[in-house]
Amino acid sequence: MALPSSLNRYLLLMAQEHLEFRLPEIKSLLSLFGGQFTSSQETYGKSPFWILSIPSEDIARNLMKRTVCAKSIFELWGHGKSPEELYSSLKNYPVEKMVPFLHSDSTYKIKIHTFNKTLTQEEKVKRIDALEFLPFEGKVNLKKPQHIFSVLEDYGLDPNHIPENPHNIYFGRWIADGQRDLIESYSVKKRHFIGNTSMDAGLSFIMANHGKVKENDIVFDPFVGTGGLLVASAHFGAYVYGTDIDYNTVHGLGKASRKNQKWRGPDENIRANLRQYGLEKYYLDVLVSDASKPSWRKGTFFDAIITDPPYGIRESTRRTGSQKEIPKGLEKCPESHVPVSLSYHLSDMFFDLLNFAAETLVLGGRLVYWLPVYTPEYTEEMVPWHPCLKLISNCEQKLSSHTSRHLITMEKVEEFENRDQYSHLLSDHFLPYQGHNSFREKYFSGVTKRIAKEEKSIQE
């Protein structure tokens, strides 16, 4: 399928991690900034080289100001499966598009980038010299050039079988780099306030991008924990708000999660995390509240709900209840600050979450959340469903040989009515996930079997 002639072609150099999350992130960001994917652009698989059609360079630059899955973007001038094909493609590229960057008053340099192979300096120089036919009139400046051009060679994905010649060769004008630096600068290792399940910085930014979070949005996390997801949304200029049932976490009290630290300090809290990154002005508030019993008046308040519900492994799934509901002989936790704490089935939690999102998101707002699954029993039909919400993407991250979690992105497409509240309970889409209420037991049964197998192999 040919790309629309009205759109410019760009080459995206992708990072080789979180592979399943890359396409939904780029799709969401293009949609946010006024671009659109064509059907021919969804077959990249694991390749780091993607050719996109984008309406303008401004949209390309905006894309790179947000993405953590892409390394760089280039205006694509030519490509081929051999040097001869590349040169032929470059000769067919419109000269009028080249001239603004090659005139005599400009400075430039050419870089060589190879994937899955290392070239000698001599080989790199040879490739640069072969481009002498291009109408460069400016001066070479290796330190601070006005324009940077790149030859990018793809030697495939198998490091054990590197071909002599590249599968594909690209040439383009560098436009911008992505936001990969955020993964290090926002690392939880350097964060002031963390917990047992603080979200990895890279995934936090991916979730915010899947949620199409933008400046002046209001973003809510009903299972806020230590607020890692709020930090990512605030970085993109959104005002953030959260709730959690755990009094100690919300107030930064109790035992610390960090190694070699017994108790949390007086300034360890969610607000301090935002202050650490200069984002405190985006902090609205965080409250102690039960997600199963939201205390909100009816209305649409949020542009995005981005959350990581507890799975019952490192953080318990709890809700508040009455003394009549609690089994005899069960003592309440002395640190919980919740009058009575009851178990909260995963299926009930996700039912409540989707219903809450359908009721409180603005039309077009997004819900982004993690769904834990027991892999041997998982089917796509198990993803919880709601009549007001449309499934946008479903990305898997493996946790172990038998468990994984799926990053689910949904968009509100219909206004909520009271009749919608329970309609999906009658749907075939709701019942299958109820089997995952025992996810914790299945998770640990797999761990126990693995340990037993390892011990047996050691004894043998």
TrEMBL record:
Give the family from UniProt.
Answer: Belongs to the class I-like SAM-binding methyltransferase superfamily. TRM11 methyltransferase family.
Name the UniProt record assigns to this protein: tRNA (guanine(10)-N(2))-methyltransferase TRMT11
Identify the keywords attached in UniProt to this record, alphabetized: Cytoplasm, Methyltransferase, RNA-binding, S-adenosyl-L-methionine, Transferase, tRNA processing, tRNA-binding
Q: Which domain of life is it from?
A: Eukaryota
Which GO terms fall under molecular function for this chain's record? tRNA (guanine(10)-N2)-methyltransferase activity; tRNA binding
Q: Could you mention a single GO BP entry for this protein?
A: tRNA processing
SUPFAM superfamilies documented for this protein? S-adenosyl-L-methionine-dependent methyltransferases
Could you state one GO cellular component term attached to this entry? tRNA methyltransferase complex
Chain coiled-coil ranges = none
The UniProt entry lists the main location of this chain as cytoplasm
Q: Which residues form the tRNA (guanine(10)-N(2))-methyltransferase TRMT11 N-terminal domain?
A: 9-180
Role: Catalytic subunit of the TRMT11-TRM112 methyltransferase complex, that specifically mediates the S-adenosyl-L-methionine-dependent N(2)-methylation of guanosine nucleotide at position 10 (m2G10) in tRNAs. This is one of the major tRNA (guanine-N(2))-methyltransferases.
Q: Give the main EC class.
A: transferase
Q: What EC number(s) is this enzyme filed under?
A: 2.1.1.214
Compartments where found: Cytoplasm
Assembly, per entry: Part of the heterodimeric TRMT11-TRM112 methyltransferase complex; this complex forms an active tRNA methyltransferase, where TRMT112 acts as an activator of the catalytic subunit TRMT11.
